[in-house]
Design brief:
Elements (H helix, E strand, L loop, with lengths): L11 H27 L5 H9 L16 H26 L6 H27 L4 H27 L8
Helix pairs in contact: 1-5, 3-4, 3-5, 4-5
Length: 166
């Protein structure tokens, strides 16, 4: 089956359906980023504080405690599963565009590496591997940028129809 450029050959109704999916998926993804911002986990110190707690900080606005084993396994498990599905579905749509093969390969494989590095890094940070906080921040930013680019490429390509008009 030839996937290259398939997206623009689909009927208008299917392209609207896919666009609605990508928009709602993006709303969900960006809502997650708002939550990360609310937990102050957008900085190196915030990442540490969110998973390791801040009990020693007498000036902390909000007291946070180190996550339990159960909490960490739940966070890592649910995020790796859900993010892998998100990037599989979005990546499938990216492969149906007519952008270059190398861009497709990067946009569809990189997010899986970032998911493992981000959530694996969070777990290792929690176990005491302090330098993982830098990996978590970098891979989280890269994952977000890749999501943004992929979703924008798909939405843009959905506007370029080569489908016959009925």
């Amino acid at each position: 089956m030839q996937l290259n450029g398939l997206l623009s050959t689909l009927s208008k109704e299917i392209r609207v359906f896919i666009a609605a999916f990508v928009v709602v998926l993006s709303i969900g993804f960006y809502t997650g980023l708002l939550f990360i911002n609310e937990t102050r986990s957008t900085s190196i110190g915030g990442i540490e504080e969110n998973y390791l707690g801040n009990e020693e900080d007498e000036d902390a606005e909000v007291m946070k405690f180190k996550k339990s084993d159960r909490e960490m396994l739940t966070i890592v498990h649910t995020h790796i599963l859900s993010m892998s599905m998100i990037f599989f579905l979005l990546g499938s749509l990216v492969w149906m565009t007519d952008i270059s093969r190398n861009y497709k390969l990067f946009l569809t494989v990189e997010p899986f590496l970032s998911v493992i590095l981000t959530f694996g890094g969070i777990y290792f940070l929690w176990t005491g591997v302090d330098w993982m906080k830098y990996i978590v921040l970098f891979s989280g930013v890269l994952m977000t940028v890749t999501f943004m680019v992929s979703s924008l490429v798909v939405l843009y390509k959905l506007t370029q129809s080569t489908a016959p008009v009925h």
